[in-house]
Amino acid sequence: MYLEHLRVPAGEGVLHVTRAGRGGRPIVLVHGFGSSSFLWRHVAVRLATAGEVALAPDLLGYGESDRPLDVAYGLIEQSRALDHALTALRVSRAIVVGIDLGALVAIDLAARFPERVGRLVLVSPSDPDDLPPPEIRALQRSAARLAVRLDPGLFGALAVLEPYLAEAAATPQRIPRRLAARYAAPYVGRDGLQHLLLLARSLEAGQDEPLALDRVRAPVTVVRGSADRFCTSEGAPAIARRFAQADLATIEGAGRLVPEEAPAPLAALLLELAALGGAALDPPVFSATPGS
Asked: Which CATH architecture has domain 3-130+209-287?
């Protein structure tokens, strides 16, 4: 399978992008807060094996992408950087998939650059009217308590990210310490936790103009794991209703980290959507077992 790691110019900085597959339809996979393109590794391989091209960027300031000074790292800055990166990659139109806060970046991209997005898939989307989301506010409080108790040191980010990730999964056992440490790896070091908190502050209300959900013209599919405690069975339909055309899909047995917990059912859904193009999807329910 064709796999490469790219450094792609994106306006304010350079994005690290993992590309899996070649010659197929482009599917852009946008991670959320506290993660990186690493989150999509199992999904990307499945999409590429099926003949599609998976493009998984690290958002600006995340993962292996640049951390430029004097950048707000808000949703608008992220969607503009993603637009620049897609231009550099010569991707004129794609299926764009975003998870939690990455879903909001994907919404802004679809609203601001409608020619880019043939279909929008929102996995466990955060509430665009409640920023930063409650789970990120809890992470900020946890970091503040850590700073009061002791010097966070080299592994401060892991101390606050590990419980954040464990709560996002259907069960904490799905995120063992070694896996949590891999997610925290970009923030190792005495400045790592501070950078993570900077990314969290960039999402505070008032940092960005409101998302224009009514300007999204691409078909939308909202996906949630049945065990997701953040994007609830009431919240997901409420978000879907705000779009001109939207479907709902549920992946049974998964929490919020659907690409980590249930990559096979999620990849199957994305391949079905890729085949449909702009057509509507009958609401499916997929079953998932841990790591499937």
From this structure: 3-Layer(aba) Sandwich (3.40)
